[in-house]
Protein backbone atom coordinates (compact mmCIF):
# COMPACT_ATOMS: atom_id res chain seq x y z
CA UNK A 1 0.00 0.00 0.00
CA UNK A 2 1.38 3.21 -0.87
CA UNK A 3 0.27 6.30 0.53
CA UNK A 4 0.74 9.16 -1.48
CA UNK A 5 0.77 12.22 0.31
CA UNK A 6 0.09 15.07 -1.74
CA UNK A 7 1.24 18.33 -0.63
CA UNK A 8 -0.97 20.85 -1.70
CA UNK A 9 1.24 23.30 -3.06
CA UNK A 10 0.45 26.73 -2.18
CA UNK A 11 0.70 29.12 -4.88
CA UNK A 12 4.07 30.47 -5.32
CA UNK A 13 4.43 33.40 -3.13
CA UNK A 14 6.25 35.56 -5.39
CA UNK A 15 6.68 39.04 -4.36
CA UNK A 16 7.45 41.08 -7.12
CA UNK A 17 9.07 44.21 -6.05
CA UNK A 18 8.72 46.58 -8.71
CA UNK A 19 11.21 49.23 -8.19
CA UNK A 20 9.75 52.00 -9.99
CA UNK A 21 12.53 54.17 -10.95
CA UNK A 22 10.88 57.35 -11.38
CA UNK A 23 12.77 59.13 -13.93
CA UNK A 24 12.46 62.59 -12.83
CA UNK A 25 11.77 64.17 -16.03
CA UNK A 26 13.33 67.46 -16.13
CA UNK A 27 10.38 69.40 -16.93
CA UNK A 28 11.71 72.22 -18.82
CA UNK A 29 9.81 74.68 -16.90
CA UNK A 30 11.73 77.48 -18.24
CA UNK A 31 9.21 80.04 -18.99
CA UNK A 32 11.02 81.89 -21.57
CA UNK A 33 10.34 85.50 -21.00
CA UNK A 34 10.80 86.44 -24.52
CA UNK A 35 9.11 89.31 -26.09
CA UNK A 36 7.87 91.04 -23.04
CA UNK A 37 5.97 93.90 -24.33
CA UNK A 38 3.80 94.51 -21.36
CA UNK A 39 5.69 97.19 -19.60
CA UNK A 40 4.89 97.62 -16.00
CA UNK A 41 3.61 101.02 -15.29
CA UNK A 42 6.01 103.06 -13.31
CA UNK A 43 4.23 104.45 -10.37
CA UNK A 44 5.68 107.84 -9.95
CA UNK A 45 4.77 109.09 -6.59
CA UNK A 46 4.33 112.73 -7.01
CA UNK A 47 5.32 114.65 -4.01
CA UNK A 48 3.36 117.74 -3.63
CA UNK A 49 5.51 120.34 -2.15
CA UNK A 50 3.50 122.95 -0.53
CA UNK A 51 4.90 126.19 -1.61
CA UNK A 52 5.41 128.31 1.36
CA UNK A 53 4.69 131.75 0.18
CA UNK A 54 6.68 134.64 1.39
CA UNK A 55 5.10 136.32 4.28
CA UNK A 56 3.30 139.27 2.97
CA UNK A 57 1.58 141.39 5.46
CA UNK A 58 -0.13 144.18 3.75
CA UNK A 59 0.54 144.24 0.05
CA UNK A 60 3.78 143.51 -1.66
CA UNK A 61 6.63 141.27 -0.69
CA UNK A 62 9.04 142.50 1.87
CA UNK A 63 12.33 142.85 0.09
CA UNK A 64 14.76 144.81 2.14
CA UNK A 65 15.37 147.55 4.61
CA UNK A 66 16.37 150.91 3.32
CA UNK A 67 19.59 150.57 5.29
CA UNK A 68 20.48 147.56 3.15
CA UNK A 69 20.79 149.68 0.04
CA UNK A 70 24.00 151.64 -0.19
CA UNK A 71 23.69 155.25 -1.21
CA UNK A 72 24.97 155.76 -4.71
CA UNK A 73 24.86 152.05 -5.26
CA UNK A 74 22.44 149.24 -4.94
CA UNK A 75 21.82 145.67 -4.14
CA UNK A 76 20.82 142.72 -6.22
CA UNK A 77 18.10 140.40 -5.00
CA UNK A 78 18.67 137.30 -7.03
CA UNK A 79 15.70 135.34 -5.78
CA UNK A 80 13.33 138.10 -6.68
CA UNK A 81 15.22 139.06 -9.80
CA UNK A 82 15.42 142.71 -8.99
CA UNK A 83 18.05 145.30 -8.31
CA UNK A 84 17.28 148.03 -5.85
CA UNK A 85 19.37 151.15 -5.98
CA UNK A 86 19.66 154.36 -4.07
CA UNK A 87 21.05 156.84 -6.57
CA UNK A 88 20.76 159.69 -4.14
CA UNK A 89 20.06 159.69 -0.45
CA UNK A 90 16.50 158.68 0.23
CA UNK A 91 15.64 157.89 -3.39
CA UNK A 92 15.12 154.27 -4.20
CA UNK A 93 14.79 152.70 -7.59
CA UNK A 94 14.30 149.16 -8.70
CA UNK A 95 15.02 147.39 -11.94
CA UNK A 96 14.80 143.93 -13.35
CA UNK A 97 18.00 142.04 -12.65
CA UNK A 98 17.83 140.40 -16.04
CA UNK A 99 20.34 141.78 -18.46
CA UNK A 100 18.75 142.95 -21.68
CA UNK A 101 21.62 141.60 -23.71
CA UNK A 102 21.25 137.86 -23.37
CA UNK A 103 19.35 137.46 -20.18
CA UNK A 104 22.08 136.89 -17.63
CA UNK A 105 21.39 138.03 -14.14
CA UNK A 106 23.32 141.14 -13.37
CA UNK A 107 26.02 140.38 -10.89
CA UNK A 108 27.13 143.43 -9.01
CA UNK A 109 26.66 147.09 -8.40
CA UNK A 110 29.77 149.18 -8.42
CA UNK A 111 30.75 152.78 -9.04
CA UNK A 112 27.20 153.76 -9.81
CA UNK A 113 26.72 150.96 -12.32
CA UNK A 114 24.83 147.74 -12.34
CA UNK A 115 27.19 145.30 -14.00
CA UNK A 116 26.39 142.18 -15.94
CA UNK A 117 29.10 139.54 -15.53
CA UNK A 118 28.40 137.79 -18.81
CA UNK A 119 29.65 140.32 -21.31
CA UNK A 120 30.29 143.35 -19.21
CA UNK A 121 27.29 145.50 -19.89
CA UNK A 122 26.76 148.28 -17.41
CA UNK A 123 23.57 150.04 -16.46
CA UNK A 124 23.03 153.23 -14.55
CA UNK A 125 21.84 152.87 -10.97
CA UNK A 126 19.80 156.01 -11.53
CA UNK A 127 17.54 154.89 -14.33
CA UNK A 128 18.77 151.52 -15.53
CA UNK A 129 19.93 152.96 -18.83
CA UNK A 130 22.79 151.35 -20.71
CA UNK A 131 26.12 152.93 -19.98
CA UNK A 132 28.21 150.28 -21.59
CA UNK A 133 27.37 147.59 -24.13
CA UNK A 134 26.91 145.12 -25.57
CA UNK A 135 23.42 145.54 -24.15
CA UNK A 136 21.35 147.93 -26.22
CA UNK A 137 18.42 148.41 -23.92
CA UNK A 138 18.21 149.60 -20.37
CA UNK A 139 17.05 147.41 -17.53
CA UNK A 140 13.32 147.20 -17.19
CA UNK A 141 12.00 149.13 -14.23
CA UNK A 142 10.54 147.20 -11.33
CA UNK A 143 8.00 148.52 -8.90
CA UNK A 144 8.77 148.90 -5.27
CA UNK A 145 7.18 150.73 -2.45
CA UNK A 146 9.09 152.25 0.39
CA UNK A 147 7.37 152.79 3.67
CA UNK A 148 9.44 153.78 6.60
CA UNK A 149 12.43 151.46 6.58
CA UNK A 150 10.76 148.81 4.52
CA UNK A 151 11.23 148.30 0.86
CA UNK A 152 8.62 146.08 -0.68
CA UNK A 153 8.09 144.68 -4.10
CA UNK A 154 4.90 146.21 -5.34
FE1 LIG B 1 24.56 140.73 -19.92
FE2 LIG B 1 25.59 139.81 -22.22
S1 LIG B 1 23.99 138.97 -21.02
S2 LIG B 1 26.17 141.55 -21.08
Automatic annotation (TrEMBL):
UniProt name for this protein: Cytochrome bc1 complex Rieske iron-sulfur subunit
Gene3D superfamilies: Rieske [2Fe-2S] iron-sulphur domain
One Pfam entry name: Rieske
Domain of life: Bacteria
Region annotation (Disordered) ranges: 37-75
Swiss-Prot/TrEMBL keywords: 2Fe-2S, Disulfide bond, Iron, Iron-sulfur, Metal-binding
Cofactor(s) the record lists: [2Fe-2S] cluster
InterPro entries, per database record: Rieske_2Fe-2S, Rieske_2Fe-2S_sf, Rieske_Fe-S_prot, Rieske_Fe-S_prot_C, TAT_signal
Lineage summary: Bacteria, Bacillati, Actinomycetota, Actinomycetes, Kitasatosporales
Task of the protein: Iron-sulfur subunit of the cytochrome bc1 complex, an essential component of the respiratory electron transport chain required for ATP synthesis. The bc1 complex catalyzes the oxidation of menaquinol and the reduction of cytochrome c in the respiratory chain. The bc1 complex operates through a Q-cycle mechanism that couples electron transfer to generation of the proton gradient that drives ATP synthesis.
Low complexity composition-biased segments: 37-55
Organism: Streptomyces achromogenes
Record keyword Iron-sulfur present: yes
SUPFAM superfamilies: ISP domain
Amino acid sequence: MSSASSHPTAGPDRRTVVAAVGAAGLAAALTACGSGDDSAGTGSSGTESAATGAASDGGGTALARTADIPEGGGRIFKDQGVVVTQPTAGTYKAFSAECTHQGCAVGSVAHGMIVCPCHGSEFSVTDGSVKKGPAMKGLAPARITVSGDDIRLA
